[in-house]
Amino acid sequence: MKLNFRKISAIASSALMLGMTAGMAAAANYPAPFVVGGSPNVAIVYGSGAAFSDQTAASSIAESLSSFVTGTGTTVTGGDSARLGKTSDEVNLGNDVATVFGTTIDDDELADLLADGTYTDDDNTEYDFTQKVTLGSNVDVTHFQDTDYDDLIGASDRTPTIGIRFASNAHVLNYTLDFSTHPAYNAATLETTTMKLMGRNYYVLDVINGTTNKTTFLDSANSAVVTEGQTTTVAGRSVGINFISSTEVRLDVDGAITNSLVEGATYKLADGTYVGIKDILYDSKEAGISKVEISIGTGKLEVDHGANVELNDVSITEITGFLAQDSSEKLDKIVLMWTTDDEEYISPAASLTLPAFQALKFSMTAHTLLGTGEDTEVDGGSSEIEVQTTIKDGSVTIPILGANSTAEFATIGKDSAGRLFTGNTTSDFTAATPINRVFNESVGDKYMVLSWNNTRDGESYYLKVDTTTENNIVKARFENRITGSQKLGAVDDVVSFGNAEITVKNVTNGGTVPNIINFSLNAGSGTSALYTEEGMKIWLPFEANLSDAGFNNSGINFTPTPVFEVAYAGHTFDSYLLRFDTEDRDGNLGAGDSFNVTLDESGTTNKVHVPTVTGDAAGLEIGSTDDFAYYVITDVSPRIVHATGGDYDSVKVTYPGQDSFVNLFLSAPEASAGGGTLGDVLVTDAEVSSVSSKNLVVVGGSCINSAAASLVGGAYCGSAWTSATGVGSGQFLIKGYSSSSITSEMAILVAGYEAADTTNAATYLRTQSVDTGKSYKGTSATQATLVVA
């Protein structure tokens, strides 16, 4: 008999979003402590005589860590930029950016690109204008997996990504230049003038007004007058006149001769930029000197009302232009509507720039806490379901449901001799007056989770409970299963664990009388739920009937009559919904969304099924594994990895414990998001003394890496390595060392029995959730087991 996790489902308003990030991080999880808060403190050590694959593995870890180096993660450098999020309301997974940030971006956010300005027409009349960007309704943060995206960023491992994926024909944004007073829309007024759009100057080459309204602009960001017989430097290029007449000119640009060009014509240079002719200043006199005014940039842009913009006579299908006129046929607005013509992406690995005009860029830094945090595992086996998590005093494994020989849940806890007491009240935590509880050893009660909470704080303690006699007084005994400490309480004594208080009401012990402890708890305390260290609430099963209060949260009935089995669905011996509650962004416990893990029986062919929000569908596979990952869509967004490749399935929930969001920017194209670099972090083992004040990632085994030898206690090879580490052929070790002789900081060993195993270890470290303070033994790039001392 194998116990299985058949499904994970959303509750109420929550939703599940499929995928995972390329790396995970938290206070104790990779990339910490090597990169914390976007700032690095790390060196990566490989053996000077090791196989080249060890150096490649070290480089892959360096590349992975560099993706987390973002400075503060909330700024960009090198150009005008706006972060599309608010400290009071960040852009979370599942959010539409326009809904959170607002639809309009103007000079308050982009002071240079969208600055108010004044346009001067050919009659020297001035017209004030404003600029703005209006976000479309398709700028949604999602979790996706897409082979086209993999091709775009050069990925080959089918790693799902958090970011923004635009479908074809999705509206991205509108740019609007709005004149306060309206210039006449005709050739005489507008032609040969300069107009500023999105921080760039454009020369107005041609204006057509009539049944067709069309304006032709020339990018004049880099303009100059070139004099015949002289050479002028324009945008880093040496430009001269090869031939000039009253109607055309040939230019010499860095030694290359252009075609003959008339006014308004453009010519593509070797590097893809364009030289454009603004004005031919020909002097026919023998002693005269002719000149030409040119520009070098993106070239010629034609904005035709209601049609696609053309760049150098090529239609740009993503941009539609509008030249709005008032009732007097004066120019009111210039609008550029950006709509995708294929799938497009924004992520930490992919930016997206406004086509043709190249003036606005979306970019994203590494996500804040998405995919990172505290791990909770729900694991099965032949006879029980266990929850492994971290509570107030440390890591703990708690059996929560035991099954009989026919794979039916039969008891709360491990088995009938080791029951988990979860209370005999449906008013846990909320009772106005203390409720008497009965802990009865005769029915197998042996353990309990004692929890306390208020609005923002929660704490839990895993206790073994029994009775003892001290000085001829029968007392209740409470043993902390993590710390080993014991506390005794006679009748009327108050026993405290943190903020939780147990008042012992009565104790019986020995003889024919069963050992029974009657007790009550203080306000805010209970035994039917567990709070992880980061604040996630896990509801523990308690025996109840359908009509009992709280039944739908965590009640279970082991013996429902057949007529009621449908009503009891998810709360019976056959199938049980284990419920998790998240916090909201302000840290209020249980105020976020909830999700369930369905616990069920399973054979080796009955794999886990994970429904989406809309119905039954497979999750997103991580690489080529049998592990599937997705997110709960809420402010504090847990990542759930569903492992389906073994004899029975398991679930790992990574809970961030804080508001988890993306940092999205709209900026000038030259701006760079993040503002941090990892630097040169690769060193050989011969150089390890030079990095003794840094956190170290030691790659390769002790036989070929002296730094690894220092960690494991000797330069072990082959069977000696196996004896020292427990790692044999086809296996690897990832092990954290809080202290060592090679650094004053933390070190982690990433090493395999063979070079290929070391490569797998490096991949596992980068792509799976790894607590860098613990030890793992693995067999592939996606399979490893936590080693418990």
Description:
- The protein has 789 residues and is mainly beta.
- The chain has 8 helices and 65 strands.
- Strands 9, 10, 11, 14, 15, 16, 17, 26, 27, 28 and 29 form an 11-stranded antiparallel sheet that branches. Strands 2, 33, 34, 35, 36, 53, 54, 55 and 56 form a 9-stranded antiparallel sheet that branches. Strands 60-5-61-63-62-64-65 form a 7-stranded mixed sheet, sandwiched between helices.
- Strand 15 and strand 16 form a beta hairpin.
- The longest helix is centred in the N-terminal third of the chain and has 15 residues, at 52-66.
Write a brief structural summary.
Helices cover 8% and strands 43% of the residues. The protein is built from 8 helices and 65 strands.
List the helices and strands and how they pair.
Elements (H helix, E strand, L loop, with lengths): L1 E9 L5 E3 L16 E2 L2 E2 L1 E5 L5 H15 L9 E2 L3 E3 L7 E2 L4 H5 L2 E2 L11 E4 L5 E10 L5 E4 L2 H7 L7 E6 L4 E9 L7 H4 L3 E4 L2 E9 L5 E6 L2 E6 L4 E3 L2 E8 L4 E5 L2 E2 L8 E3 L5 E8 L9 E7 L2 E5 L2 E5 L2 E12 L5 E9 L4 E3 L5 E2 L7 E4 L9 E6 L4 E8 L2 E10 L5 E4 L6 E3 L15 E4 L4 E9 L4 E13 L2 E8 L5 E4 L4 E4 L2 E9 L7 E6 L3 E2 L2 E3 L5 E3 L2 E2 L7 H4 E2 L18 E7 L12 E9 L17 E2 L5 E6 L6 E5 L6 E6 L5 E2 L1 E4 L4 E2 L8 E3 L10 E5 L6 H7 L5 H8 L6 E6 L9 E6 L2 H13 L7 E6 L2 E5 L2
Parallel strand pairs: 5-60, 5-61, 37-39, 49-50, 61-63
Antiparallel strand pairs: 1-52, 2-54, 3-4, 6-59, 7-58, 8-57, 9-11, 10-11, 11-14, 12-13, 13-30, 14-29, 15-16, 16-17, 17-26, 18-25, 19-20, 20-21, 21-22, 23-24, 24-25, 26-27, 27-28, 28-29, 31-32, 32-58, 33-34, 33-56, 34-35, 35-36, 38-45, 39-40, 39-46, 40-41, 41-42, 43-44, 44-45, 47-48, 48-51, 51-52, ...
